[in-house]
Amino acid sequence: MLVQPHLFIPGPTNIPEPIRKSMNVAMEDMRSGEFPKLTLPLFEDLKKVFKMKDGRVFLFPSSGTGAWESAISNTLNPGDKVLMSRFGQFSLLWVDMAERLKLNVQVLDEEWGTGVPVEKYAEILAADKGHEIKAVFATHNETATGVSSDIPGVRKALDDAGHPALLMVDGVSSVGSLDMRMSEWGVDCCVSGSQKGFMLPTGLGILAVSQKALDASKTSTMSRCFFSFDDMIKTNDLGYFPYTPATQLFHGLRTSLDMIFDEGLENIFARHHRIAEGVRKAVDAWGLKLCAKEEKWHSDTVSAILVPEGIDGAEVCKTAYYKYNTSLGAGLNKVAGKVFRIGHLGAVDEGMIGTVLFTVEMALRDCGVDVTPGAGSGAAAEYYRSTSTKSASGT
Asked: Which 3 state secondary structure label does DSSP give 191?
């Protein structure tokens, strides 16, 4: 196949050519006197993406899962009580990790298609007069169901209760694409990964940590080695790492950050919202529904679309892949076979979304779904045309 496959899963995302080319460098000495010229600015510029005023950012050679583990193991103690909610595959996996690491997890099981139950959190925190809960966890964007949650609402629940618990946020599929105001929202650990909004290959677990969380790490007794804050701090302050880092990804990250700042974070958030709205217009035109139960849960980085009764969402994905050279996200766990997912985060524009919507219409019809050809792609096209702020001259 001479044509590049069309990738519309919610991560890894498409890699822009400038980023891909910037990683095509010879291997280098990661202990040379020149290496900190690359790494030290990365730490500071990442703080701008997380909108954090204090604390620091760690770069682990891992996926976001490694950053999850680092956040837990450096700030908490075995047996600590934590508050979590489970409403999709990735919030489920974070709960599973917390339980394996011997935390005492109070977990709220919510309907898949909803998000963090802020009101329930508020009630539980207000009732916890002895402050037994040491950390509150929230998945900002649940990739499996296309749901975004209210992180400022969780912070308000903590503040209203006068509760000192740490606030841990999974921002793997949100940071760099959705607004994350770490300092303003009082987030103590925010987890991300290189393969989503940062438009890189998988391989960097990115963890932003507040000063409060850094202070908590000084008394944490949980075992850790590879993901230790202390080991990283000792070397990071000089621009180095305690083990071999992913040097080529750092070059890609440098270009990614330059591209992010060139477009502007607020413009990126607005672009993602507009792109997502076009996808939602298409879903409505097809007569289908999102897995997200209400508009307040709608994600601007991924749409999980329910298939009609009797249709297998996995077959829609299979047809799109083998017949039309397009990768869609399959349903996971409780929604396996019930949804297919369109990832619309990172380096995406109207033309790219037009491609996936056109392909989805063909795949749906092949699988027996009665959609009118051009209905969804046309609805999105009209929305994008009517909301474009650019003139024919590009200004």
From this structure: strand
Say how far apart CA 293 and CA 335 lie, in whole Å: 13
DSSP string, 70-139: HHHHHH--TT-EEEEEE-SHHHHHHHHHHHHTT-EEEEEE--BTB---HHHHHHHHHH-TT--EEEEEEE
pLDDT on residue 63: 94
Sign of CA dihedral 360, 304, 8, 309: negative
Instruction: Retrieve residue 257's tokens.
Output: 């950050």
pLDDT of the residue at 2 = 67
DSSP 192-210: EETTTTT---S--EEEEE-
**How many Å separate Cα 156 from the centre of its chain?**
22
Q: What is the pLDDT of residue 273?
A: 98
Give the range of the structural domain holding residue 383, as residue numbers without chain letter: 6-11+264-387
Q: For the domain that residue 50 is a member of, what is the CATH number? A: 3.40.640.10
Same domain, 110 and 254: yes
Please provide the DSSP assignment of 149-190 as one string: --HHHHHHHHHHTT---EEEEE-TTTBTTB---TTTTT-SEE
The tally of CA atoms less than 13 A away on the side-chain side of residue 86 is 16
Strand partners, 169: 138, 190
Residues 266, 208: Cα–Cα separation, whole Å: 20
The answer to whether position 393 is within a domain reads: no
Half-sphere exposure of 31 (CA within 13 A, CB side): 3
pTM above 0.70, yes or no: yes
- What are the residue ranges in the chain where pLDDT is below 50? none
> What local confidence, expressed as pLDDT, does residue 3 receive?
82
In one-letter notation, the amino acid at residue 86 is: R
Distance (Å) of CA 157 to CA 82, 116, 136, 179: 15, 12, 10, 20
Q: Which amino acid is at 48?
A: K
Q: pLDDT digit string (tens) for 220-246?
A: 999 999 999 999 999 999 999 999 999
For residue 392, what pLDDT is reported?
Answer: 78
Computed over every residue of the chain, the mean pLDDT equals: 97
Query: What's the length of the chain?
Result: 395
- Burial status of residue 318 (CB atoms within 10 A of its CB: 0-12, 13-18, 19 or more): middle
- Report whether 30 contacts 245 (CB < 8 A): yes
322 part of a folded domain: yes
Residues 89 and 201 in one domain: yes
pLDDT, residue 275, reads: 98
> Quick one: pLDDT at residue 389?
87
